[in-house]
Every structure is written in structure tokens, then in C-alpha cells.
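Case study.
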Amino acid sequence: MIWLSKRRYILFMLLPTLLVYLAYIILPVIVSFCYSLTEYSGIGAAIFVGLHNYASLLGDSLFWKSLKNTFIVLLVAFVLLLPGAFLLALLLNVKIKGGNAVKAMNFAPSIVAPILVGLIWVFILDPQMGLINVILKKIGVDQLALQWIGGTKLTPYSVGVVFTWQMIGFLATIFLAGLKMIPRDVYESSSIDGASKLQQLFRITVPMLGETIKINVVLIITGVFKIFETVLLLTNGGPNHLSEVMVTYMYNVTFTSGEYGYGMAIATVTFLLTMVFSLVYMGLSKKNIEE
Amino acid sequence: MNKRLSIVLIVCFLMLNLAACGNSRNTADHVPANAGANTDQGDTATDAEQVTLSIAMHVANVKEQEPYMYGIIQKFQEKYPNIKIDLQGAETQEHVKKMKMMAQSKKLPDIFWLLPAPAKEMNQAGLLLDLSDFLKSNPETAASIDSKMISAYQDGGKQFGLPYQALVTGLWYNKALFDQYSLKVPETYDELLAAVKVFQENNVVTIAKGAKDTFSTWAFLGMLTRYGFFDKIDNIQAGKDKFDNPDFLNFFNKIDELRVNGAFPDNVSSLSYFQAVEMFTSGKAAMLDAGVWETKKIEGSPIGKTAGFSWGPTFTDGVGNQKVAMAVAAAPLVASAGVKDDAAKYDAVTKFFGFFYSQEGAAVMAENEAPPVVKYTGNVDKEKYPVYADVIGKLNEEGWERPAAQPDLVVSEAVANQLNDSIYGVINGIYKPEEALKLIDDKVSK
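After joint prediction, the assembly is written out as follows.
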């Protein structure tokens, strides 16, 4: 098997994967970008319009609304999901009876299809028939029974909460794997030196989970920028696009309004934003580690 | 040896992959002739070649959601045993998207349902079969379809489609609720507004609607025609007039007035169309904005005995004839231009269209309580199907003018989408009437 370690053979072995990656990831991105420079209804010939679609985006209030909503979801996810998943992982790391069953239950929302997640949460968040408002009204706090979805303000926050619920078990599992990698003797040495549990957490656990945190942050960024089914089921982007996130708005423009060129411009911007955010974060965290 | 073996294995794997991606169209579409074919009524030969026709529809479950189409296909296959139908279905948006993608790869189904705007574009791109020859060689069929419905699908001298069904839309009502509060089923806007106020006081929803499905604005599109939509639309599209004109503004102000007075469900923005239907059929709403495709469901529901159908209110400040009945061509059934390359398939396609628009086809539609596209000469059992009989009665009522089409079907997809969105924007209280109209103008100018 020595011959396989040669660079040219490695490249040859990777070729099928690279071809698939090229055909199903790189090529569609390039094709999408090309279509974003055209006016195209999906049928017939596309008309080249240069950067017109990108210029139109600047004046499109719905695009900015969808961008703002996406950032609200991102913010909610950072505030709730990252610390939440970390704390959950710390709890799961404690050896208790039935711990494996608890781990499986926490992971369960991640394996539920997003479309079902949306459906489940409609029955929880709907202002009229949803579980939350029904309970709030039953216990006499009607003023807290807000329009969690379908109103003009709260939907993106609700989407952030649903996304958190869906992802928390998955990210906690990654954190848990990171926690298991930290050698026990580091904790033992620090205990002998008199470190408290809190000091161990902030001086040992968090710094040694640097790479795991980085992975989870990138997963949150990429996950938020591709939220689709949850919004589709919760509100379908409504009322009147006020709860659109970038992907649902792109879908609506492309497939409902038949503006393929403009839709691909939104897709390209979404792709670039995801790349930029992920790369900037990775760059910054690398710099911090080096420092 | 290992090296050679690895290379051979990789090459085999790649070849298998390529083979799997190959086109198997010819073998899939045609199967050997059925020697025992039981042909009748003009089927040309008993040893006719077995043909498979692919038909794609706009609903996920054709048997459940479009039972008359499913029934027609079953009867057609019984009559022509040498023609096998490969029926596919997908939800409307998904279906339209799929057809556009298949058009790009020139693999359109033989016959399919499509929205008028993309159908027109496909016709202009030369992708659809010209059905003029079919109509010429079947004059009885041509005569039995409403001429406005036929001309709705003509462009560039070609008949690119034929009406799949009559789009009959308006407001369903539950008479029991109107009787309970001593109200008259509204015929005018003022009567409707008066009913809204009474229902609001009694916590009854007047018009069940679901804004999550923005396409569900049928009755309101019908009302828009009573403000001179078809007198203005050509000028609007030519840039000589605007949606934001005094007449349309009057109408949008009326929608706003209905909202302010509580005509719609409190959670209209998070309800889907299907939930709105459920609200009506369970007796929680007095009216429902929908079409006659819901006849069977309503007839079988607890309110089946007291439900009726109306064309919606007329307006004192409306423009032109107020007695407009929204019974128009819905969307066309079209055929791929590619079928002309295969004589047997072309013959099967024309046979299918012939059967679909025959009295046999119309009878299947009537059995399933759908309004036949052709002039149906059969009878409707009023005892067994009271709601359907009411619909047919409304359709046959004298003195009601039928417009050329539903307003959203004569504009581009983007404008149609915005029109629906603007109507729901006012219903949801998100847009002011002027703002809603300006947004449509923005799409038109774009």
C-alpha cells in the first residue's frame, strides 16, 4: 500500500469526490452567479443585465427586511444557543443514572425533519390556538399572550428560539465530545493547586474548547443563513414578507414570482455573507489563539 | 498487481456511474404491444402499439385532491387499454418549478397543467404543442367549450392549451348563521358590512381567510373586476395608467373597512387557506373565500345542508356592470411539443384531449361535483347533491357577465404575486390601501 501515499495517487483517489463536489456544489454556485447577472423567468432565454439585479437589491426594502430578520435570528442563536449548548454539555458530562437516555433525548430535535419542527411549533406559537397563549390565558395573564408568530415584530425572535431548540442537542454533543478530549489530569493538577470549579471552567475548560467553540460558531452561522422550512411552516414569510429570512425571500422571489435572475442575486449575496462571516470569525479566532 | 486491480476497480465504478446517468427514455416510455387490447369506438387497431402518456398535475395527491381528473384518467384507460397513463402530482408551486426545470432540459411530460403566464412563455419558446389542429378536427368539442375559455389560451396564432377546468370562485356562505342573527345573505357591499358588524358583536368570523397562502384571494379578485379592472389593465400594463387609481383605491379602502370592522379572523396572518376552510366547514365562520373545488368537501361537512354559493357583493361606487360572475378558464392543460415527433404518442394525446372534453369526461366531472368545462347536458340530483346543484344553478343564472379571466391570470407572475400580497397586506393591516396599490405599480414598472 506504499504506492497510495504518493501525492499523484492521492489526487487520483480523490478525483471522484472532487468531481461530485465540482458538479453539485461549485458549478451550481457559478451558474447561480451567472443567472444573477440576467433577467430570467425560468423559461426561454436569459437577458444579460449586468449588475442591475444587485443595484435593485439596494433599493429593495423587503431584501433589507429579510437581512435584518436573518441577523435577529443569528443574534438570538448566539445569545441562547452557544451558552445553552455549552451548559447542556457540562450537565451531560456528569455521570448520572440514565445519562445516555438523556443524551439521546437532547439530540432528538436535531434528527426531526425541519418541516416537522415548523409544524410542531405552529401548534405551540400560534397566537389563537397555540399552546403558549392557551396556557397564558388559562392562568389569567392575557397581557403576556403575544403574537409570537404572524405579527409584525416577534416572528424572527420566535424563529431564533425554534432554531435553538432544534440545534441545541447537536451542538451540545459536539461540546461533549470536546469535553471528553480534555485530559483528566489537567483538572486533577489544578485541584491540587487549589483551583475552584469556576476557575477550572474559565481557565481550563473554555480555553481548551477553543476549536470546538469555533466549529459550533461556524455551524450556527451557516445554519442560520440557510433557515428555510421552519419559517415556511411557521409563517410562510408573512404577514406580507415581514418575517422573511434571506432564503425564504430568495425562494419567494425565484419560484413564486418567477424572477429567477433577481432570486439568484439574493442567493449569491446570501452565499457571500455566509462565507464572509464564517471566514472573518475563523480568521479572528485564529489570531486570538496565536496571540 | 494491487495497483492494477485498484485502477480496474475505479474505472469500473466510474463506468457504472456514467451508465446509471444515461437516458433510458425510449425504453421507459414504450412497452411491447398488447395483443389482447380491447379497443372500441374508433380505436384504430386492435394490435395498436402500447403507449405510455405522462401526465403531470398541480396537486400532490391527484386521486384525493382532483378526483375528477383521476376518474377521467381511469375511464380513459378503460376505453383505450393500449394507452397507459403515468400520472404524477406535486403541490402547485413545486409543480410549476418542476415544469420550468424540465423545460430547460427538454423533458416535459406529455400533458401537464400549468399557470397561464408560464404556459404563454413556454409557447413563445416553442415548447408546447399547437392544439389548433385538434380543435379543427374535433369541431363538436370546440363548440362545446366556451369561446372565451378557448381564446384565453391563444398566442402568436397558436392554441397552446385548453381549459383544464372552469375557475368558479366567490363567497361560500352558511345560511344557518345568517338566519341565527336574522341577517340577509349579502348581495351588496353595504349588506356585507352590516352583517360584519353583527357577527363581530357575536364573536363570529364573517369571512374565513388564511393569509399564509397568499394565493387565496379569489373573491376579492372577483370584486376587483367590479371596479373596472378589465377596462384599465391594458393601459396599466402599457404604462398609461396605474393600479393606484381612484377606482382601485375605493376598492382597497373597502377591504380596509372590512378589516377595521372585524370581518376576518383575528389570526388571519398565521392561518393557512386549509385552516380557513376548516373554520368555515366547522360552522365557526359565516363565509369562505374559495371556489367550487370545495363543493364536495362542503357538501360532506356538518354545514352541508345550509351552505350556499354567491358571486360576492356588488358596489354602489363600482365601475361598469356589477353583475360579474367569476366563472372563467382557470389554467390550461397543455401538451409538450415533443409529442409530435412520435406518431403513436401524438395520437394518444389527441385521444386524451378528445375524451377529456367529451360528455363522458364531463359526466365524471359532474359525478365529482366539479363544474364541467364543456356544456354538460346531463342532470344533477338536487336531493343528493344540494350544494353542487346550487353551484350549477348559479352558473346557469341569466344576466351575469363572465370576464375574460381572473385578474391575476392576465398579468405576469411577479405582478400577480404582488396583487395577492397587496390584498392580504390590507387584510392583515400591514399596508395602507395607497401603499398596497403602489407596491403593485412598482412590480408593473419593474
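Observations recorded in class. Chain B has two domains: 48-163+331-367, 167-326+402-445. The domain at 48-163+331-367 of chain B is CATH 3.40.190.10 (D-Maltodextrin-Binding Protein; domain 2). We will return to this complex in the next lecture.
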